């Protein structure tokens, strides 16, 4: 499994595209956080990374499918999937190896953003940032990235076209992020079902963790979604 994980890591950073994707991710977040007037934390007057943690999921929604779109699509297209099957590895080991390899790349993209928290802490005159909420929000971003990674890998396992894999992965991630929220706001569900429908979406649980309160229901939700898509991917590989 770790051999597959290492291969995924090396494949992403073997081309300029991987580095460009990470630079663009950090550049967009930096511009949104410090430059653009509508979202710049310098205009808020208090030390908070709330705008970053509310905008970062939408940037991840495009970054993660970029990372995962080649996971299996390139293997199918280049014919290396047949060689991959000859290795003494079970489909589950291949899937989890791909997952952890892509997730490590996502975490590497998030690590430099800790500089934002350090900068805001240094710029604040009194109080500083809410450490508990900040740690919870970063945990939420990692879990969110893990969900997006499982979705992207699943999408890549259904096609040999990387563009189709990217579009399908990004679309499913978008539905998980905002689809259930939109449905819960329909007038027909305002009698009480809206809360339970909203609970099916990622945003509900991400906002809960971002408050610095880590509850078992949120961890179970993220773990369940990840396992669901990885099991679907595993079944797809077994069928091939």
Automatic annotation (TrEMBL):
The chain crosses the membrane at residues 12-35, 55-73, 94-118, 138-156, 163-183, 219-238. It is a multi-pass membrane protein. Coiled coil: none annotated. One of its GO terms (cellular component) is plasma membrane. InterPro entries: ABC-2_transporter_component. It is found in: Cell membrane. One of its GO terms (molecular function) is ABC-type transporter activity. Keywords: Cell membrane, Membrane, Transmembrane, Transmembrane helix. This is Protein involved in gliding motility GldF. It comes from Sediminibacterium ginsengisoli.
């Amino acid at each position: 499994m770790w051999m597959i994980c290492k291969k995924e890591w090396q494949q992403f950073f073997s081309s300029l595209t991987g580095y460009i994707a990470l630079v663009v991710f950090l550049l967009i977040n930096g511009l949104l956080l410090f430059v653009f007037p509508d979202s710049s934390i310098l205009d808020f007057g208090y030390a908070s990374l709330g705008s970053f943690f509310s905008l970062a999921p939408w940037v991840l929604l495009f970054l993660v499918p970029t990372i995962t779109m080649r996971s299996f699509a390139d293997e199918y297209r280049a014919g290396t999937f047949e060689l991959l099957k000859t290795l003494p590895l079970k489909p589950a080991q291949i899937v989890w190896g791909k997952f952890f390899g892509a997730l490590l790349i996502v975490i590497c993209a998030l690590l430099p953003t800790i500089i934002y928290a350090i900068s805001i802490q240094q710029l604040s005159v009194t109080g500083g940032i809410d450490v508990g909420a900040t740690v919870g929000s970063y945990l939420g971003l990692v879990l969110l990235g893990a969900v997006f990674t499982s979705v992207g890998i699943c999408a890549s396992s259904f096609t040999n076209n990387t563009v189709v894999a990217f579009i399908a992965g990004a679309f499913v991630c978008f539905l998980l992020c905002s689809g259930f929220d939109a449905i819960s706001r329909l007038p027909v569900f305002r009698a009480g079902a809206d809360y339970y429908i909203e609970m099916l979406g990622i945003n509900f649980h991400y906002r809960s963790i971002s408050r610095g309160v880590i509850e078992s229901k949120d961890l179970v939700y993220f773990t369940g979604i990840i396992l669901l898509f990885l099991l679907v991917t595993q079944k797809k590989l077994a069928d091939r």
